[in-house]
Design brief:
Blueprint lengths: L11 H9 L4 H8 L19 H10 L10 H10 L1
Helix pairs in contact: 1-2, 3-4
InterPro entries: DUF7218
Organism: Echinicola rosea
Protein name: Rho termination factor
């Protein structure tokens, strides 16, 4: 079991793994706190194959600000870099 990061982090193990990969604390926390974090198992399709609506929903799950004004390319960039 990984370190307990407090009540604000729902999936401590995933948070630690993401931080070890070099993600920022805020991005790692957003991903580790999504309702379906770590449940899927396998790899998902590349973002370029997702619909804009699917990208928007993912951006919503990880709380990316300004997502409603973004086009598909901007959503992909935000999901990858934020």
């Amino acid at each position: 079991m990984g370190k307990d990061h407090g009540p604000n982090i729902k999936n401590d193990e995933q948070y630690e793994a993401l931080r070890d990969q070099g993600m920022s604390k805020s991005k790692a926390a957003r991903i580790a706190n999504t309702p379906d974090a770590g449940k899927k198992g396998g790899r998902s399709r590349p973002y370029e194959e997702w619909t804009k609506d699917d990208l928007y929903e993912q951006a919503k799950k990880v709380n990316i600000q300004g997502r409603s004004k973004m086009d598909k390319k901007q959503l992909i960039k935000a999901l990858r870099t934020d």
